């Protein structure tokens, strides 16, 4: 089994490590984080230091990396870490909890996390470094752009399109065929009945734009 390093040691890291351990697909799991001390551990997985140790880990044979910084707004941090580690030379496997259901007819990018009891249905297309979190549903023929976060308990109905870097908040619903723009945020519990543009926050049922930042 190949080893892997997790970039970020917060709460999301715990969910990813738990899924990785349950999958039994990896050997040693290392963690890098600026707020943890080398030698600390999470669920028995060693903190190796900050991201400065990544070249050494790669030289020591750790070929895989995974972004475990959580995503609560489109800050660009996850994509910055992803491309930094990619430039160093790491590969990005998908980490899928054994309880998740992923159709063999779905198309997956790289570096994707699929949490417990999540569902990705037939014909769905998931971009790179996407989070499909605990209990989320991405239904048939939906598209989820790179670095998007489909949060806990969210429902993305068939043929919906979620833009890159978008956040669909916990328990939200995006109805069939609705398009959510790049860098958009759909608030927790909201229901998107119609298209929502890029770089804005929309909340409510039905979801209405609360503010724009571009």
Descriptive terms for the model:
Rossmann fold; 2 domains; alpha/beta; UDP N-Acetylglucosamine Acyltransferase, domain 1; 24 strands; 3 helices; six-stranded parallel beta sheet; globular; 214 residues; eight-stranded mixed beta sheet
What does this structure look like?
It is a single chain. The chain has helices spanning 11-23, 54-59, 77-88, and strands at residues 2-7, 26-32, 41-42, 45-49, 64-67, 95-96, 101-102, 107-108, 113-114, 119-120, 125-126, 131-132, 137-138, 143-144, 149-150, 155-156, 161-162, 167-168, 173-174, 179-180, 185-186, 191-192, 200-203, 208-212. It is globular and about 50 Å long. The protein has two domains: 2-88, Rossmann fold (3-Layer(aba) Sandwich); 95-202, UDP N-Acetylglucosamine Acyltransferase, domain 1. β23 and β24 (208-212) form a beta hairpin. The protein has an eight-stranded mixed beta sheet, with helices on one face. The chain has 214 residues and is an alpha/beta fold.
- Annotated CATH architecture of the largest domain: 3 Solenoid
Proportion of strand residues: 25-35%
What is the number of beta strands? 24
Provide the spatial order of strands within the biggest beta sheet.
6-9-12-15-18-21-23-24
**How would you state the average pLDDT, rounded?**
95
């Amino acid at each position: 089994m190949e080893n892997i390093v997790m970039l970020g040691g917060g709460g999301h890291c715990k969910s990813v490590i738990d899924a990785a351990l349950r999958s039994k697909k990896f050997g040693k799991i290392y963690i890098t984080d600026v707020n943890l001390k080398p030698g600390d551990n999470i669920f028995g997985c060693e903190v190796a230091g900050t991201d400065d140790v990544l070249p050494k880990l790669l030289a020591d044979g750790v070929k895989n990396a995974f972004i475990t910084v959580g995503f609560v707004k489109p800050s660009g941090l996850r994509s910055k870490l992803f491309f930094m580690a990619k430039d160093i030379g790491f590969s990005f496997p998908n980490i899928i909890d054994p309880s998740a259901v992923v159709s063999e007819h779905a198309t997956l990018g790289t570096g994707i996390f699929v949490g417990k009891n999540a569902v990705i249905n037939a014909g769905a297309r998931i971009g790179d470094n996407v989070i499909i979190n605990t209990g989320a549903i991405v239904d048939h023929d939906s598209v989820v752009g790179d670095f998007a976060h489909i949060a806990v308990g969210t429902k993305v109905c068939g043929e919906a399109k979620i833009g890159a870097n978008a956040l669909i908040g916990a328990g939200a619903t995006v109805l069939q065929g609705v398009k959510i723009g790049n860098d958009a945020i759909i608030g927790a519990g909201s229901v998107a009945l119609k298209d929502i543009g890029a770089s804005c926050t929309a909340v409510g049922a039905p979801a209405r734009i609360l503010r724009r930042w571009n």
